[in-house]
Amino acid sequence: MADGLRFSRRLRRTPFTASAERAGVSEFSVVNHMLLPKSYGRSVEEDYWHLREHVQIWDVACQRQVQVQGPDAAWLVQWMTPRDISRAKAGDCLYVPITDETGGMVNDPVLLKLAEDRFWLSAADSDLLLFAKGLALGRGLEVAIDEPDVSPLAIQGPKAEPLLADLFGPHIRDIGFFKFDWIDFSGTRQLIARSGYSMQGGFEIYLDGGQLGGDLWDAVWHAGQAFEIAPGCPNLIDRIEGGLLSYGSEITRENTPLEFGLEKFCNLDVDVDCLGREALQRAANAGIPRQVRGILFDGDPCPTCAEPWPVRVGALQVGQITSAIWSPRLKRNVGLSLIARSFWDAGQSVAVHCIDGTTRNGEVSDLPFA
Amino acid sequence: MADGLRFSRRLRRTPFTASAERAGVSEFSVVNHMLLPKSYGRSVEEDYWHLREHVQIWDVACQRQVQVQGPDAAWLVQWMTPRDISRAKAGDCLYVPITDETGGMVNDPVLLKLAEDRFWLSAADSDLLLFAKGLALGRGLEVAIDEPDVSPLAIQGPKAEPLLADLFGPHIRDIGFFKFDWIDFSGTRQLIARSGYSMQGGFEIYLDGGQLGGDLWDAVWHAGQAFEIAPGCPNLIDRIEGGLLSYGSEITRENTPLEFGLEKFCNLDVDVDCLGREALQRAANAGIPRQVRGILFDGDPCPTCAEPWPVRVGALQVGQITSAIWSPRLKRNVGLSLIARSFWDAGQSVAVHCIDGTTRNGEVSDLPFA
């Protein structure tokens, strides 16, 4: 489901957009005021099977970095997240829910600790930089906040490691999950993390210096020929099957991290200054009213979920599907939905009121889907 | 110039999207994480002539409202803008540059004063809500900030006034420019302002209650039949000819309001608490290095400006065009560019390095274009 996108400078091109165009990009989304390639003319299903078997190159420069540095940098980052970051080391990546004072989620970035007083927040689709800047200015913190010229390029799939070891040396094999290290590229030092928005493993190169975008794409592309590399993008089947959440689709400011099973990233027992801590403690004590679940549902491959579809038990709405697609592996439709507590057990029968007018039988599933 | 847009819940539909689809919308942009119709299958030029002569209905719900209310609301709004808002009255709309501590622009909304302690900031394309929330939380202000279910529908063009007088009563004729009043619609009270992102006059209805979106569109549409109404959108020819700026295209955080000739909205001599005041005073005293100008340039109708095009005098880059289009009225291409001080006088010869590889002769023009 796609319609035309009217380009303008406001929807920023990335250092890799020209390369993506040469590779045949046919559809985009927009994240952080920047273009995100979403199709190269193949079906989501073809891309899915390819991603599971080979390796793909993804322009995810739209994951913009909010750089926080200075004497108060660590304090500010901790203030924004209920996750205890005190034991993080330089070289660590941490998934950090960012909340306001109500516990509502403002963003869900990956935090990269570059030094004790320097961090990148690799942001999902909201202007996290403006929130951080507002907090710092309001509180009078000694900290500098900006968006550096850093653009992630993801190399995802089972062949990502051998490809990148060929290209940058075997030391990249030693990088642990959600850790980062450095590579040399064209006379520059570049950050590489074992991370990425897929379930198939891989790396993200945080390219520092947009002028190198075309060269980096080409280097990966050429080294990738031996590994059947293809251009790709975050894959909706892989994402939903894996229960990977999307800020703006599943997660909004109306939701707390607890509703997404992110308790392990909320160290509510640790006594740190954190904006959302009290509200989240109250919410945890009161018992959360809804939590994200998978929904398996029948019928033909479902259309694109561009607005929430009610999930009902009898006449009662118990949730709403916010992302959905046909799973060729499970041979059923799969969706993500917050589900009210009384109905969130796996196996619960539900009815999905799809945008195409059909009502489909379904059932609640744990995440990730089996 | 359009490619495919992949829909998802993250790119929010508006209360008018279904109506726009029935009216034949064929292209969108994305503003504030929401769909903005950008074409109904006619050319920008056809739309331009129609807008100048008749009346159009525009889904501009993406102009999201940041509601600021409470005892500290007026203080917070003043802190964010160098414009003196102390003499504003309920019923006033004010264009307010919002700046950070460097004087860099964070947004350029229209402020609607609803009461002494309640404001809407009708936001351009950045998460102004997160900036305001950060400032309020950092400073510990007594203020509530949220995004109400309010969605502007613009009625633009010379026949907007008679149409709306027919539909809502003759009192709307008495609404002054950048003032608002109230209308009754379907048992509800709705805000209507004489404003809009065109040079052809008109109104914006700030629909409170998204469930009324289809009904409001239909009511305007039916009343508009006698006035040759058409569905439309902010028109790029009209916008550039009129020198209307776009946040994200012309204006970024790198720029101060002074660079856009917005001195009249910066009351730097008034002693108010304002984040950007000192930086702007310094910038004004130092003399601004560049300011926005029009560029008239030769050759065939230019392509879409999706990334800046260098503007040169000899070998020296003196600016960059950030929006451009063919003007059928001036029979030349028109563009907007910040231009270095020594070259910003009207009539200065320049060369435009267009994305299509052509170098075109041009000249600097005052704004709006004659």
Helical stretch tally of chain A:
8
Total domain modules of chain A: 3
**What oligomeric assembly is this protein in?**
homodimer
**CA gyration radius of chain A, whole angstroms:** 21 Å
3D shape of chain A: globular
- Considering residues with a beta carbon less than 8 A from a beta carbon on another chain, report the largest interface and each chain's count: A-B, 54 and 54 residues
Report how far apart the termini of chain A are.
Answer: 27 Å
Q: What sequence of helices (H) and strands (E) makes up the elements of chain A?
A: EHEEHEEHEEEEEHEEHEEEHEHHEEEEEE
* Order of neighbouring strands in the sheet with most strands of chain A: 13-14-15-12-4-16
Could you explain how this protein is built, in words?
Two copies of one chain form a homodimer. Chain A has 370 residues and is of the alpha+beta class. Chain A has three domains: 17-63 and 149-239, Gyrase A, domain 2; 65-146, Aminomethyltransferase beta-barrel domains (Alpha-Beta Plaits, 2-Layer Sandwich); 289-370, Elongation Factor Tu (Ef-tu), domain 3 (Beta Barrel). Chain A has helices at residues 17-22, 44-53, 73-80, 128-139, 160-168, 213-224, 236-242, 277-286; strands spanning 2-6, 27-31, 34-39, 55-59, 65-69, 93-95, 98-99, 105-107, 110-115, 118-122, 144-146, 150-156, 180-185, 188-193, 202-208, 229-232, 290-297, 309-313, 316-327, 332-340, 349-353, 359-365. In chain A, the strands form five sheets. A six-stranded mixed sheet of chain A has the order 13-14-15-12-4-16, sandwiched between helices. In chain A, a hairpin with a 2-residue loop joins strand 9 (110-115) and strand 10. The longest helix of chain A has 12 residues, at 128-139. Chain A is globular, with a radius of gyration of 21 Å. Strand 1 of chain A pairs parallel with strand 2 (27-31) of chain B, so a sheet runs across the interface.
